[in-house]
Write a structure and sequence with these properties.
single chain, about 230 residues, alpha/beta, Rossmann fold, five-stranded parallel β-sheet, about 15% strand, binds adenosine monophosphate
Length: about 230
């Protein structure tokens, strides 16, 4: 049972790593951005309210996100742990998550920070393509699908996200620096933060993430024994 948060700027590889962890450790990958995009596709009230913020690359207001995530985290598949990707993104969201976990007698096991320099993020985001059906992630140069613009997993046509146009990407990176980066200190002070160089290649990053998660679970097991 592991509750993991993946932290890092847009394009740092959180989604790729979370879906790899889902396969390895059989814990669900819960991505707030994917949940929001599903609301938009279903044209829900939340989707309609969130969309203008997302199109600009701004954060969706905390109250909307917190209700959505609270509902997701009580679903049956989340009872044995999860990897959170894209949430929390503000200190207020992190506090809310801590309080909810505490009320249940739970806590986070590890926060993994994927560090990637800005020029590399810009390159990655501009080449990114996603599957609108199964959320698989590709890159035109570094992780192309077998058949151009077609998802390897489900055969759907790949798309470029609205918010991956260059001017929106720049805003997302600025929003990350202003509103999400303070979480590094928040989790560092709680001794949960594991920093990993996100530029060493998908497989090596995964090996380091797995090692950090393994270390955290041993630590948790040790604390239960004492
Ligand atoms: P992502 O797929 O994680 O890059 O998220 C895409 C967009 O969804 C972000 O640019 C935000 O507009 C919105 N979003 C996703 N997660 C959150 C969150 N935890 N708090 C606020 N907005 C979010």
């Amino acid at each position: 049972m592991m509750r993991i948060v993946l932290l890092g700027p847009p394009g740092s590889g959180k989604g790729t790593q979370a879906s790899a962890l889902q396969q390895r450790r059989a814990i669900p990958h819960i991505a707030s951005g994917d949940l929001l995009r599903a609301h938009i596709a279903d044209n829900t009230d939340l989707g309609r309210r969130a969309r203008p913020f997302m199109d600009r690359g701004d954060l969706v207001p905390d109250d909307l996100i917190l209700d959505m995530m609270a509902a997701r985290l009580v679903e049956p598949d989340a009872q044995n742990g999860y990897t959170l990707d894209g949430f929390p993104r503000t200190v207020a969201q992190a506090r809310d998550l801590d309080q909810r976990l505490q009320a249940l007698g739970h806590r986070l096991d590890a926060v993994i920070y994927l560090r990637v320099p800005e020029d590399e993020l810009l390159r990655r985001l501009s080449g990114r393509r996603i599957c609108p059906n199964c959320n698989a992630i590709y890159h035109v140069d570094t992780m192309p699908p077998n058949q151009k613009d077609i998802c390897d997993h489900c055969g759907s046509a790949l798309i470029q996200r609205q918010d991956e146009r260059p001017e929106v990407v720049r805003n997302r990176l600025q929003v990350y620096a202003e509103q999400t980066e303070p979480l590094l200190e928040y989790y560092q002070s709680r001794r949960l933060l594991h920093e990993i160089d996100g530029t060493i290649g998908v497989d090596r990053v995964l090996a380091e993430v797995a090692e950090a998660v393994g270390r955290a679970s041993q630590q948790v097991a040790g604390e239960h024994r004492t």
